[in-house]
Here is the input.
Amino acid sequence: METFRPDRRHFIKLCTVAGISIFAAPTLWQLSRGQPVGKQQPDWRGPGGGPAFRTDGIAKVTGNKIFGRDFRAVDMPGWPDRQHYAFVVRCNRVERRFSGFDWAQIPTGAEPYARVTAQTLQQQGIKLPEFYGDLMLLPEGESPRYYGHAVAMLLFDNFEKYATAKQALQFSKEFIRYGEQTPPLERDPYASWRIIRVEGPGGPTGEDLYSPLDDGLFFPQYRDHKAVWPRHADQAGSVSERGIYYAGQIREQIEQESTAGNWHLVEGEYRTQIVEPMMMEPEATNGWLDADGKTLHMVLTSQSPQDFQEMAAQLVARSSFAGKIKNLVVHSGFVGGGFGGKDHSIFPYYGLVAALFGEAPVRLANNRFEQFQAGLKRHPFHMRNTLAVDKNTGKFQTLLSEMQVDGGGRQNFSPSVAMVGASAIQSIYYFPRNDISAVANYSVNVDSGSMRGYGTMQTMNAMEMMVNRAAQELGVDPIELRLRNATETGWRNTQGAVPQVKVRYREILERARAHPIWAERAKRKQAYEEKEPGYFFGTGFAIATKDYGTGGAAPSAAVQFDENGELSLAIGFMEMGTGTQTSQAFLLEKTLGAPASECHVAEIEAWNALQQFQTESPYTMSQAHQDKMSADPLWTPVVAMASSASMSSYFQSHATEQAAEILFHHGLLPAARRLWQAEEIDPAQLQWRNGGLHYQQLPSLSLQQLAREAHRGGLVTGAMVHAFNRWKWAEADFELDGENRTWVIDGLALRRGPRSGSGGTGISSADYQVIKRRAVRYPKTSLNNAMVTYYAPTAALVEVAVNKGTGEVKIIGLQNYMECGRLIVRQLVEGQIEGGVAMGVGHALYEVLPPLAEGAGNGTWNLNRYQVALARDVAVWNQRHEILEPGSETDPHKGIAEVVAIPIVAALSEAICQATGIRFNDTPITPEILRRALNPEV
Amino acid sequence: MPIIHRFLALLLIGATASAETPVEKGRYLAATGDCIACHTATGGRPFVGGRPLPTPFGTIYSTNITPDRKTGIGNYTLEDFDAVMRRGKGPHGNLYPAMPYTSYYLIDGEDIAALYSYFMQLPPVEYSPPKNRLIFPANLRVGLSAWNWLYFDDGKKLPQPGDKSAQWQRGNYLVNALGHCGECHTPRNFAQAMEMEHRFAGNVLEGWDAVDIRPRALQRQGWTREQLMELFTTASSERGTLFGEMFRVVEHSLRHLSEDDLNAIITYLLDDGESRPVDFRNLEQAAARYPSGRRDFIAYCAGCHGREGGGILLDFAPPMDGNAAIRAQNPHNNIAVILRGLPEQRLSRTRARAGMPGFHRELGDARVAELVNFMRSAWGGAEAEVSAEAVAKIRRELSDHGYLGARE
Amino acid sequence: MATIPVSMTVNGEPVAMDVPEYTSMLDFLQEYLNLTGTKLGCGIGVCHACVVVLEREDGSLESVRTCINGVGRFNGKKILTVEGQAKRSADGGIEALSPIQRAFLRHFSFQCGWCTPGFVNATTVLLDRLKREPVPADKLEDTITEALHHHICRCTGYVRYFRAIKEVIESTPGLVKQVE
Here is the structure.
């Protein structure tokens, strides 16, 4: 069944796909109009312990940074100067048949030269990649499948015609004609998940009686487009029969224990809203079909360009353009924010089609109304939850949750968002028993995708709200209740898996409990309310721990130095603004004594040197297949990964550090031996200090000296690695320079001596020789059932004042706690926290898109109505953070981009409850809702 | 099964919902009367008062009308409440006619009783608004008796012409009594009494023209029933959008009214008639006559109000072509909006508008006049030109009252 | 399509050309001058990513949203876009950053950088205003919030921008009045 796959990277990147050679030009940022801004300004590193500023900082404060959206034909080397423009026409209703256009609505003089409709696409055999479903453009006579369904694309040969026509047509009520009414469309859910676990006699660390990890998953049937779970229970039966047996046991026990008065039940419905990612840069493409060169060029604003390459080539290969296009060149530019909204978006495919029919380079650029209408959203969840707590011990006994997830009109990542949401609801707590189900449904709403949070924003906050409520109803301090229930390192999660990293929840909880905002909350409330009689004051706490990673991470990195010891780094990850480029460049310092002076992000070409290939989906392949394929030293479960899911700091850093260590071990260390003329060197005694490598009493060696020697002597001067992680890292054995050694990677290529003179700057595959591994140990495929096992926790302590009349919520004080392992660059982490808080505040208090006809799909939404958090909404002068010191030198660099936005939501909800006495289960808690709730008589 | 029965029962109750309690009725009437607008300070709790109401004689602060015994109306009997509402006579003396008893005297006794039961069950809030700041002799309440004697005749009944529809009669009551629309929309004499012979002819308040809402004006501007309904429920329509105090009237009052009552109000305002479709578009002539006005329209206005004034999207900004303010006889609001701009305003989570920048720093009187003349002749069928002097006068008035200070 | 002649000074350089009359200032900068440092965020004047600095006749500065204003509004005027904020050499290379640019760098104020041009420009205007009307020290934070709270940032949550701005104002003589 297609919907089973928790797959964020189903599609494979190959060098040649269906006869089309794919080329990537990821370094558009270097072409910025004569400004070599990709090359770091000399002083970004600064003299301090961390970088002085971001490597891309100067370009960004000076307007030199060229984002994907900024490129015009004239900026592209080799392209014609003429720029054409495309406009996608979209439906703002769903209940009637589309019956053609009133072309007379196009202003005179602003006529498009090409009108692309469903018919055109059909004639040319153009079909969306499977991932996106069908009906790229709605055919005449059909009703739109969802609000905002595209019906046509118009191409214009100059900007003015485009701008004129777009203003006349975008909001026109007459341009698209509608015919008879049709009944609402129903479809089967996109996917369903069920997570049942019952702890065994051995407790949290022992064998489970039943869990997805041990027993596997089972799925419902769909009747009348609703999920119907199997009913037959049998303790000794199939995975589903046993699952249903235990699910029945769980429910019976709840009934008995609560009737007997032993357990307290917190039951409730929890709803979240449709949220727009509102990345600042609306999506855009620029594409050119170079007919003579049989080459299709695409400039993207995508977080997942690798996936685009593969799927775009397939699209072309299946169409009548197959013979006309031999090459696909994908230029992935810098992205002006994404938050998941640009990960596997359907948008670039419209740009691609525009390019296919264009007579010159065609630019397709959403304005903000269009971005609201057609951009990916955050899934709304509707949960029915039961939390059972032992009244005497305050220990959580059981968690039940039924989740309905609205995926919108196209599937996108709805299956895996539902799965991640379901597997994350446990948050930091341990549950001996759980029965969690999640169904991702089709609807006529705008489709939702992998927006920041990925289901966990929704479900973990529901959990935190339940815990806060349980604390109140049981008369226990909320942090005390959390301490009693926080899971421990080595304990199983709701899926039966054991998280791979040390958890430090207790430490965070203890610190928050001691903070004056918490410890003195009663006093502070009294003082504030005396001073400000128009306000209620309240304090709230919440904690979240976000899994990060996808269970199929495949980072690549290459590090090399030139004769002068200048370090260059290339990584597969792209820069979305989070500072990946800066932190990865900085990361080399520990191993190689200096940061990278160049960091190429979103590198693609170089990895060809690794010669790797993949076969089946890493999520669904059998152990036997993996075992068989592992024998081929060039096989890997996944070649390339998307820049999403908080992947850079943990996964990319691992590859970067491995490459740096290999380069040190096989390049700098032998060079040092030669220069020091010391055969035996104990690596443990080597130290980088003040830019020099020190060993005992020997004179220190600069990186430049070492590099020159390595180049001269034909030593390793560049190391390129590929790693694979399925909740554990793959490791492989290599024989190098007569030495057998295990590295935590599965692919390796090396450069020896000077560059081969292949031309161009940067890191080139031509310089590298693949080194075949002698053996590899991949994590077992059964770990796929573990779903997620990497976690980074954040907690938020917030105090608010609620206006008794208007319901407005003012954040008075805010203290965050973050445990991110070893942080790489403090300011980047703090900036992430602050940005996450702002997004979380918006989710909690302001942001909402209504469903259906009033919603974003009607094309009339923009920031005048959709309220995001502004500076005055986030206590901009009163935010404090505490980043826990790493527990050890070997703590991982944890991914945090998602978790930071989460706990502030439930913390605000609780603070509002403590202020007003009113408990809300749904988000957002808007001023309008609060005003009515506080003044019910009015 | 029991659930279904209960559901049916609810339906049946719903069907006879006209038997509403006095409190519910009072709540509805209080919304109709928009009591909350004046009796709530910015950012304050509802009905506790404290909103400053500027008058030519100084500032009056609205009172606490929650049933707090010390600071509100907790000690009022129904008779006290009636006297306040309909005669402006409070237990401690006469009310200033900022309290619209000059309209409320028309409310019938049953409605007064319903309002009383509603207000008396509100949660009492202890709060004393600031003292009024009035100049002599207006600060002496004794003068109010004389004012009432001169300008207030509570014996005068609401005229009920026999040739009007029942809907019109209901609208007449809503508009004139509870709705007290005339209090803003009617010009006032030197003593701030409504000039009843010019009822609804429009009046400048807080720097905005509370526009002429007489049937002739509305019909000339082409208001259809649907447009007025949209305006009263969403604060915007193709004929324009509401701002200032009238936006708050929609926010707190009109959008909470029943469809029947809104229809009654509309019927009354259009005087049982319909607007004829009108098209004043005369772009070419206007462009020829006011070329620099057109240039400025394109430079300053078209980005939001659309090419040729046709609008881009109503949720964003209203079109100028067909705009009632452009079609209005009085150009005051055209000029004032250009000079001072408009604040952002939110009606609900899903309805909100961005503000409009004011251009008083950048555009001089002659340019504003030319711009206004361009718009009014292009889309308003204007009969008279606006002079630079007229702009200067409005600019001065706005400036004197501090309405031009906002930074952009 | 009708065109209008446009002439103005952009970043110290005179610019003159004919463009379609309904061209917005933002489109003029991007499509005609190839200055893409000024960013489209919402297109309806809300997010303030697109503001440029307009020099008034009296020499004082104003920040103006370019997405909702026609190019005609800027005819004959002097404007500064983000590209003109740093001191540049003849070939466009950057020679020196402005204090506010340096402060945003130092504070890691931004991530994706889309809103940065708007913040740089609006802060420039605020500094100019404070030069004319210094603010009491105890009102500084409110003044900054009031001047910049319309600017939307989605990555970094404002804190680092505001701290940087405060630091620049406090370290520039004459912008803050000490409170007695």
Observations:
- Residues 166-269 of chain B form one domain.
- Residues 291-305 of chain B form the longest helix (15 residues).
